[in-house]
Design brief:
Length: 365
């Protein structure tokens, strides 16, 4: 089993890369502009590595390296299982976005992305905006997730929400024998971009929707727009519900929450929902809760930017591809059952199988 929570000391970078199977790690530095960034290319068998750039005030350089390695590996599996012809990569910029982010910093980072000559394509992630993508675009074409007004694909959240909804339906089919969500009690954690679009799909199907957020203004906006009930964050995990949809932060499936959960399905948009991947996937399985793997059902967003990267962006094509999450999710659930493994491991295995198979096609002549 590959260690997904590596402790990376400088002297162990190559052994960690070997263990996690990374291709390349690029350290980008500009003393004058104060840029310290790391680009991690995990796997390019399916195509150029793609994954967003995250800006974060890391406590140490080791922590930044660890995040770049972990996130880029995750992108390999997400892109592969989404059926896209791109590999996994991710970049991190070290520093407080509110204090040091400037046009010059973004453009300098864009130059480093450009130096990889298309091996890595970047996009938005935490603390990065569409405006930042515009700056990066001034220095390199290898950036996607550009605003619609500039000919890009725009906000990916509606597509992400649609994929989550589709994955939830496939999971319901497995749990209840029908994918109809009418009357199901569904708790959406996080009334943000994705959560709000998801609620719209669920209400159209006459589900009974509950919502939780830590900010009053988010709750006010969503309750003004939709007929939903508010749940206090502290009551969320103990509530009687059919489906829990984490659409806020990661690691909400952990030692404390899983034993409390009263639901048949977990299906949401948040990245890295499992605190410890294998341990908590196993815990959900032993409690008989169907877990729709996050990196599969939230892949609508990367699908959206992928089609922008391919040129001739076509929204209908993006939705058709995202709709395939239904059958892939069914395949994952079947594989897990037949092989007595977790749905998380099943999804990883199906992603790996695709990388291996397509790799053979590429070698053929
Ligand atoms: P967002 O920031 O718009 O929304 C997140 C919401 O969660 C916010 O309203 C925030 O107040 C709320 N929140 C934070 N902590 C909470 C808590 N403890 N309890 C309840 N609510 C809490 O983000 P988003 O774009 O909607 O993304 C949601 C999640 O989906 C994130 O984890 C993101 O990484 C993931 N994701 C998003 C996309 C996309 O296309 N936007 C794609 C893939 C994955």
């Amino acid at each position: 089993m590959i260690d997904t929570q590596p402790q990376v000391k400088n002297s162990e970078i190559f052994s960690t890369m070997a263990r996690m199977e990374h291709e390349q790690l690029v350290f980008c530095h500009d003393e004058v502009l104060g840029l310290k960034a790391i680009i991690a290319v995990h796997n390019t068998v399916l195509g150029p590595a793609m994954g967003g750039t995250r800006m974060w005030n890391y406590q140490s350089e080791e922590e930044a390296v660890k995040d770049a390695l972990r996130l880029s590996r995750g992108m390999t599996f997400k892109n592969a299982i989404a059926g896209l012809n791109i590999g996994g990569g991710k970049a991190v910029i070290i520093g407080d976005a509110k204090k040091i982010k400037t046009e010059a910093l973004m453009r300098r980072f864009g130059k480093f992305v450009h130096s990889l000559n298309g091996k890595y394509w970047t996009a938005e992630d935490v603390n990065m905006s569409a405006r930042d993508m515009e700056y990066i675009r001034m220095e390199t074409p290898y950036v996607t997730g550009i605003p619609e007004s500039m000919g890009g694909s725009g906000d990916p959240s509606p597509v992400t929400a649609y994929g989550v909804y589709i994955g939830m339906k496939a999971s319901a089919k497995k749990a209840y024998g029908s994918d109809n969500l009418k009357g199901k009690k569904i708790v959406v954690q996080g009334a943000g971009n994705v959560g709000t679009y998801l609620i719209e799909h669920l209400l159209k199907e006459e589900a009974t929707v509950f919502v939780s957020d830590i900010f009053e203004d988010k709750l006010a906006a969503v309750t003004k727009k939709f007929n939903v009930s508010v749940v206090d964050p502290k009551d969320l995990y103990t509530m009687d519900m059919d489906i829990y949809a984490p659409c806020a932060l990661g690691a909400t499936l952990n030692d404390i929450t899983i034993p409390q959960l009263k639901c048949a399905i977990v299906a949401g948009a948040a990245n890295n929902q499992l605190d410890e991947e294998d341990q908590h996937a196993e815990m959900l399985k032993s409690r008989g809760i169907i877990y729709a793997p996050d990196f599969l059902i939230n892949s609508g967003g990367i699908t959206n930017v992928y089609y922008e990267q391919q040129g001739n962006y076509n929204r209908q094509r993006v939705y058709e591809q995202t709709e395939r999450i239904y059958e892939v999710c069914q395949e994952v659930l079947e594989y897990a059952e037949n092989n007595e493994t977790t749905t998380h491991q099943a999804a990883l295995q199906l992603a790996l199988n695709r990388i291996k198979d397509v790799g053979k096609v590429k070698l053929a002549y």
